[in-house]
Specification:
The protein is α/β, with parallel strands linked by helices and 307 residues long. Helix content is 39%, strand content 16%. A 6-stranded mixed sheet has the order 4-3-2-6-9-10, sandwiched between helices. Strands 1-5 form a two-stranded parallel sheet. Strand 2, helix 3 and strand 3 form a beta-alpha-beta unit. The longest helix has 22 residues. The protein starts with 7 loop residues before the first helix and ends in a 16-residue tail after the last helix.
Length: 307
């Protein structure tokens, strides 16, 4: 999947016709249960080259959709998603972006929909898939959300032409809590439909999915969990897993610009100082905090790996 191309005029027309500026979050995201198009159980998502996108790059945006994170999903719908696509096409940090939007919940807290994900798309269908996300709220008091489900999904339920060419995709999980260090086999069976004989360790999972994806986590500092004095613990836990791939987001309205900047440094090899200087005002401030110390890394892939 992933034919078509992003066109700013089409996005502007679509968001105007959908009255995004006048609708509440509940009105934009009308799903009251898992939408069939986002159900990953027993399915794969495909990022395939096409005449429109001959060198496709799979990008997974996996959003925490638990109670404190409505602000991120709303921001993505109203502004960040079209900004992200516009800036990727203008700045060209990667070729032919294919975007999959995913929603992350908490299986341990018995969320009805712990994980959901769209097909990879390159045009206005990205926005249409985003609207289908079920914003359950939910989550629990276990100090983490199921972010590592996005890694499991990327490893076992994504097929991409980029991998066979030795090129990596990108996974951005986005939220304000700590990572889930163990994925339980029962949850993997119920969410993904997979028969897994043992629980999955997140560190081992990360090692394997990193053969096909560059993996980042964006810490939403404006989220309730971080705001309640837990920010230091969040960073400590994430940096133990991801090191410099932990990205601070101090201003949620700059989500798109931060993600593009990360791609410019890590995929296009630009100096962080050059990327920071390319933005103005408050955007430059947010980007500077986000990519401070981030450096380009030589990446390679030996093709798709499965558990």
């Amino acid at each position: 999947m992933g034919s078509g191309r992003f066109e700013a005029a089409s996005w502007a027309s679509y968001t105007t016709s959908m009255n995004y500026d006048r609708k509440s979050v509940d009105e934009i995201f009308e799903s009251r249960d898992l939408h069939e198009d986002l159900d990953v159980k027993g399915k794969v998502r495909e990022s395939r080259d096409s005449a429109d996108n001959p060198n496709s790059t799979p990008i997974i945006l996996a959003l925490d959709v638990t109670g404190s994170m409505d602000v991120v999903v709303e921001e993505l719908a109203r502004k960040s998603l079209p900004t992200l696509c516009t800036q990727i096409y203008e700045r060209k940090p990667v070729t032919d972006p294919h975007i999959c939007v995913a929603g992350i919940g908490d299986a341990e807290a018995h969320d009805r929909v712990p994980f959901q994900a769209s097909q990879f798309e390159a045009d206005i269908r990205i926005a249409k898939h985003l609207e289908k996300l079920y914003l359950e709220g939910g989550g629990g008091g276990n100090n983490h959300e199921g972010y590592s489900q996005a890694w499991y999904f990327g490893l076992n339920h994504v097929v991409a032409d980029a991998f066979s060419k030795g090129r990596k995709g990108f996974i951005f999980t986005i939220g304000d809590e700590e990572p889930q260090f163990t994925l339980y086999k029962g949850h993997l069976a119920s969410v993904f439909g997979d028969t897994v004989t043992e629980d999955v360790d997140a560190k081992a999972l990360l090692d394997r999915v990193s053969q096909n994806f560059e993996v980042f986590h964006v810490v939403v500092e404006q989220g309730n969990y971080c705001q309640y004095g837990r920010k230091d613990g969040v960073y400590k836990a994430w940096r133990e897993l991801l090191g410099q791939h932990v990205i601070p987001l101090s201003d949620v309205s700059k989500l798109a610009e931060v993600i593009v900047s990360v791609l410019e440094v890590t995929a296009a090899g630009k100096a962080s100082s050059e990327v920071i200087a390319s933005w103005d005002g408050t955007t430059s401030v947010a980007v500077a905090k986000a990519i401070n110390g981030l450096t380009a890394e030589k990446v390679s892939s030996e093709g798709l790996v499965v558990l």
